[in-house]
TrEMBL record:
Pfam family for this entry, one: DctM
Subunit note: The complex comprises the extracytoplasmic solute receptor protein and the two transmembrane proteins.
Transmembrane regions: 12-40, 61-81, 101-129, 141-168, 174-197, 227-245, 283-304, 324-357, 378-397, 409-433
Organism: Salinicola lusitanus
TRAP C4-dicarboxylate transport system permease DctM subunit domain boundaries: 12-429
Family of the protein in this entry: Belongs to the TRAP transporter large permease family.
The name this protein goes by in its record: TRAP transporter large permease protein
Length: 438
């Protein structure tokens, strides 16, 4: 029995079931179980599944995930996104495209307390899109800025995707969090430059309303004051990890407690239905992610039995081409996979194979994870499976069609490609903070 041939058949079945719409976790479990049962025995497959379920959840890294998910749910229920958006809008008043600028930096600020790009895009779709339309902003311009700004939560800590990367690769989650800060800020700055330039060239895209012209210095000061909660909470969590004052797990616990206390003090979380909704949301997200991770790790064990990762790794490491060509091939594969499958599935399927190759070729593992995350951000807004775009279309209302969101994202995707080129050319952008953290 050819183990490699069975592994190739399993991968083909996995991709076919994904295209057919079978849920990701069930897909991984089904293909992995059938594959291991074929290679060994059904009882061996059952035993290995039970072992995977225990060893995966027993990992200390897993405790980070529910804590930061809870922190994000409590922050969203406490109205932190609205405060960030309104505060930055006051600061950016009279700047061309000020509402889109507020969306970019408001999403970046909210990302420091919410690790989900889908949640960020949905929240700002409900907050920013009606305001932009009320001010007369072009529909596609508005939708594109919200969808792509929402993807900043994938890069800026506490990113849920970075936690998944840590589980799949073994890289320190604290270092990954620090590595995402400067690339995330850089992306927000490049978005803002693009927004201002386009709004100046084509004023009809983002008209400056009379309300903005009446903003005073006092209003701008009030805008800074609106940001204090989100800056304080994000600063404590990220600053504590950077300084070595506490670990990523402790940071998640402090962040969740801080979001709860601020929400209670401010008033929103005094409402039991709202608090209950935030707790229910965090529990649902956590269990879904746990299910996907366990299934993905089980499938990776099936791949390990087939020796496909080892064979591919040996071939690519010994391939007589420059290492940057191998890296470029990996990025191209991710780009193509991102067009047909969700990023979590693409990374769960490929990281066990490509990560050892990249490390063997001498690339820094933290830098590589940041590059992979930038590819994840691009995949999140590009068709046909741009999850952020679909989340925004659902949150913005019945008058928004998915093709309008996709039509508006391309100028921002170009910005993402510029940032990707900078990250590839200057690894220090990603590595400076991880290398200086205590």
């Amino acid at each position: 029995m050819d183990f490699t041939l069975i592994g190739i058949g399993g991968i083909a079945m996995l991709l076919l079931l994904l295209v057919m719409g079978v849920p990701l976790a069930i897909n991984f479990l089904l293909v992995g179980f059938i594959g291991i049962a074929t290679l060994l025995t059904p009882s061996s497959a059952s035993s290995l599944l039970g072992d995977t379920m225990y060893t995966a959840i027993a990992s200390p890294t897993f405790t980070v995930l529910p804590l930061f998910v809870l922190m994000g749910a409590l922050a969203a229920a406490s109205g932190f996104a609205e405060q960030a958006y309104k505060g930055i809008h006051r600061l950016a008043a009279r700047v061309p495209g000020s509402l889109a600028v507020a969306t970019a930096f408001g999403s970046a600020a909210f990302s420091t307390v919410c690790g989900s790009s889908l949640a960020t895009a949905s929240v700002f779709g409900r907050i920013a899109y009606p305001e932009m339309r009320r001010y007369g902003y072009d529909k596609r311009f508005a939708l594109g800025s919200i969808a792509c700004s929402g993807s900043l939560a994938a890069m800026i800590p506490p990113s849920g995707m970075f936690i998944l990367f840590s589980i799949f690769t073994g890289v320190s989650v604290g270092q990954l969090f620090m590595a995402g800060i400067l690339p995330g800020i850089l992306t927000a700055v490049v978005y803002t430059l693009s927004i201002v330039w386009r709004a100046k060239r084509h004023p009809q895209l983002a008209p400056i309303d009379a309300e903005e012209r009446e903003v005073t210095v006092r209003d701008r000061v009030r805008g800074v004051r609106d940001l204090w909660q989100i800056l304080a909470l994000g600063g404590v969590v990220i600053g504590g990890m950077y300084s070595g004052l506490f670990t990523a797990t402790e940071a998640g616990a402090i962040g969740a407690l801080g979001a709860l206390l601020l929400g209670l003090a401010g008033g929103p979380l005094r409402s039991m239905p709202r608090l209950r909704g935030a707790l229910r949301e965090s529990a649902g997200i956590t269990t879904t992610l746990f299910f996907i991770i366990i299934a993905a790790l089980f499938f990776s064990r099936f791949l390990g039995l087939t020796r496909i990762p080892f064979e591919i790794s040996s071939f690519m490491v010994s391939w007589d081409v420059p290492s940057w060509m191998v890296l470029g091939l990996i990025l191209l594969i991710w780009f193509l996979m991102g067009m047909v499958v969700v990023p979590a599935a693409a990374f769960a399927l490929t990281l066990p194979i490509v990560f050892p190759i990249v490390v063997e070729l001498g690339y820094h593992p933290v830098w590589f994870c940041v590059i992979a995350m930038k590819m994840c951000e691009i995949a999140g807004v590009t068709p046909p499976v741009g999850l952020n775009a679909f989340a925004l279309a659902g949150a913005a209302g019945k008058g928004v069609k998915i093709n309008e969101v996709f039509a508006g994202v391309w100028p921002f995707v170009l910005c993402d490609l510029i940032v990707l080129a900078l990250l590839l050319a200057f690894p220090a952008i990603s590595l400076f903070l991880p290398e200086t953290m205590m």
